[in-house]
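Batch job 17 of 40 flagged for manual review because the log was empty.
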Amino acid sequence: GVLYVNYKQSRDFEVDDRRTLENLANYAALALKKARLLDQVNKAKKAAQVVAQVTALGDLEVTLSAVTQGTQDAVGCDAVVLFVYDQAAEKLAHPPTMVGVRYKDLAILSGEVLANSIVYKMLHRDEAYIVDRISEDPLFKDSRFAREEGIESCVAVPLKATGQKVGVMFVNFRSRHRFTADELTNIELFANQAVVAIRNAQLHERTKRQAETLGGLYEADKAITSTLA
């Protein structure tokens, strides 16, 4: 913000006057910052509670929708896109979970994602990739999604569980934005919620397939034993 101190008559400002005004301005800045942080914390807390409640239901699609919506609410971004990855099959699930996206029929969102795309490049990273200025970033400046959606700043978070790649989440702003440490912490919070939900769903599906395979083998064994008898 900015603090204006006005006088009806002209006057000279001494060193003590300047020091006093700077101190008051600093108090005002601190109060504003604390208020904003508190508001951000409250938003993140409420959104996280919703995600936690939905996660307990065990519905991956609903959970990821809550994660993307919660991220948008907590950080105040314009659009969130979350891709799920199956490392065993080495492919991304389609379509991604998204909120705030204007053109959902873009090829990167509705079709097969190419192996050399930004999505895969971000997926294989070990840490978040922060872009304050899309137009100046070597990886994102030619992104069709960023161009069509008018994205100016973004952060891409690779989603990993015990060394397994399970997805990547993009948090996008349509105006120039510098990510604060608190915002990155909140983004990581929701990203971790997504990781848990995706990994649990994948493990459940794997266990289910194994059980079906064992059941089929058991029935086949019974049939063979009966025939031999």
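Reviewer: the log was empty due to a logging misconfiguration, but the result itself is present. DSSP finds six helices and six strands in the chain. Unflagging and moving on to job 18.
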